[in-house]
Amino acid sequence: MLRQGTKVRSIDVCSHNDLRLWYGMPLQQTGGWAQGFMDNAQDSLDFAFQSDFGATFLPLGEVNEGYQALLNRIESDPVAWLEWLKHEPEGMLIINLPSHCERLYKALIQHVDLHLCVWQAEPRVYPRLQQFIKRQQLNDGVPEAFLFIENGVAPQLELNRDISNIIHHELADDVTTDISIMRDQHIAEALATQQSCYEYSIAASANADFTELASWIMKRCSNA
Amino acid sequence: MFKRLVEQWREARQSRSRLASIRLFGALILDLVFINRPHTLHLNDQGAAYWLPQLEQRQMRPLDPVRWLIQIVWLAFIYQPPRSSVTSSTSTTPKRIDWLRSITGFISRMLTLATTPLRPFVRSERRANLSLLALGLATLAFVLTLPMDAAQQGLLLLIFWGIALWVRKQAGQFPMIVMMLLSFFVSTRYIYWRITETINWSHPLDGTLGFILLSAEIYAWIILLFGYMQTVWPLKRKIAQLPSDLDKWPSVDIYIPTYNEPLAVVKPTIMAAQAIEWPAEKLNVYLLDDGKRNDYKQFCEQLGIGYIVRPNSVHAKAGNLNHALTQTNGEYIAIFDCDHVPTRGFLQMTMGWFFKDDKLALVQTPHHFFSPDPFERNLSIFRNRPNEGELFYGLIQDGNDMWNASFFCGSCAVLKRVPLEEVGGIAVETVTEDAHTALKLHRQGYQTAYLNIPLAAGLATESLADHIGQRMRWARGMAQIFRLDNPLLGKGLNWAQRLCYSNAMLYFLNGGPRLIFLTAPLAFLLLGSYIVYAPAVMIAVYALPHIIHANLTNSRKQGKYRHSFWAEMYETVLAWYILKPTTVALFAPHKGKFNVTSKGQRVDKNYFNWQISTPYIVLVLVSLLGFIFGVYKFFTIEDDQQLTVIINMVWLTYNLIILGGAVAVAEEARQQRTAHRVAVDIPIHIVTNSEHSFSARMVDFSAQGVGLLLPSNQLLHPGQSIHINIRQATSRRALRAEVISCREQVAGVELKFANAEEEQAFVMATFGRLDAWLGWRPHQEEQPLASLREVIGYGLTGYQRIAAQIAPYLLPFFKHLNWIWQRLATFLPIYPGKAKKS
Question: Where do the TM regions start and end (chain B) (predicted)?
Answer without folding.
Answer: 128-144, 150-167, 174-195, 207-228, 504-524, 530-548, 608-631, 643-666
